[in-house]
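Practice problem: ABC transporter ATP-binding protein
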Amino acid sequence: MTILATEGLTKRFPRVTALDRLTVSAGTGVTGLVGANGAGKSTLIKIFLGLLPPTEGTATVLGLSPATQALEIRRAVGYMPEHDCLPPDMSATEFTVHMAQMSGLPRSTARERAADTLRHVGLYEERYRPIGGYSTGMKQRVKLAQALVHDPSLVFLDEPTNGLDPQGRDEMLALIRRIGTEFGISVVVTSHLLGELERVCDHVIVIDGGRLLRSSAIGEFTQATQSITVEVEEGQEPLAERLTSAGQRVTVAGRLLMVEAGSPATFDAVRDAVCDLDLNLVRLEQGRHRIEDVFREEVSNV
Ligand SMILES: Nc1ncnc2c1ncn2[C@@H]1O[C@H](COP(=O)(O)OP(=O)(O)OP(=O)(O)O)[C@@H](O)[C@H]1O
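Answer key — C-alpha cells:
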C-alpha cells in the first residue's frame, strides 16, 4: 500500500530551490528520509501536511491531496516538528491532553489517550511537572507523544534524535521501531545521520539538494558485499601472507583483513590459516555495505 507519493514535486523559495522535480513513493512500515542539512526534508514534510504549497508537481499522503484534503490528512497523520515548540509553563499531561482535544477527541478520551501515550514514550511521574524544566530527551518524548495521541495511521518525525546523547538516541530509535511494529503506525523519519536509520528503517529515501538520489528497501543498501572481514588481535601480516600464498586475494586495512570471497571455501581457508598460525580471531564475517558508503558513492557520482 502506498502511504505517500510525489510526482515532479518542486518547491522554489525566492533564493533557493528546496525540492527539484522529486518523484518518489513509500509504502507502510518505517521509511527513512535522509539528506544533509538543507537537502529539503522538512520542506517535503510540510508539503505533505498541507502547511506549504508546492510550486509545481503533486503530492499525496494516504491517497489524500494536501492541497484539497488537509483536514483529513491532519486527522490521520501525526507530526513531530524538528524545532522546540513546547509551552514551558504547561505540564506534559496538560499539553498532550490539549493536543488530543485539538484533534477532535472529547476531554475524557483525550485524558486517557494522553496518559497511555505518555507512558508508551517513557514519561511517568515527571509528566505532571512543567515542560520548561525537562531535559532535551524528555522534551523530544513530549513532542513524540503529541504526534501519536490521536492514534494516527502515519507519523512524520523530523530529526527526532537531534540534540540527544548516545543513550537517548538509542532509546529514541528503539521507540521509533516499536511505533512501526508494535503500534502498527507507519513512520517517516528524517535524519542527516545516515547510519542510525540503518537500524530502524524498512525503506530509505535519500535526497540531496532537493533531488532524489535513491529510494530503496534497506536490504538493498546494506546488501552483502563479496568480501569477508577478518579481525585478529595481532599477526595480520603473516595471516595475509599465508592467505595470499594459498591463492586468496587479501587487502590489509589496519587491524582488519578484507578477503575476497569467491566461494564458501574462503571461510575454511581463513579458519585454517588462523589455526595454523595460532592467532586470536576476533571477528570473521561477510562484509556489508553501510548506508554511508552507498550515500558517499552516489553523492560523488552526481
Ligand atoms: N520558508 C523558507 N523560506 C526560504 N527558504 C527556505 C524556507 N524553508 C526552507 N528554506 C530553504 O530550503 C532549503 C531546504 O530546507 P529544509 O529545511 O527543507 O532542509 P532540511 O533537509 O530539512 O534541512 P534541516 O535539517 O537543516 O532543516 C534550505 O536551503 C532552506 O534554507
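Discussion: Residues 13, 16, 18, 35, 37-43, 82, 159 surround adenosine-5'-triphosphate (CB under 6 Å). Students who identified this feature from the C-alpha cells alone can consider the problem solved.
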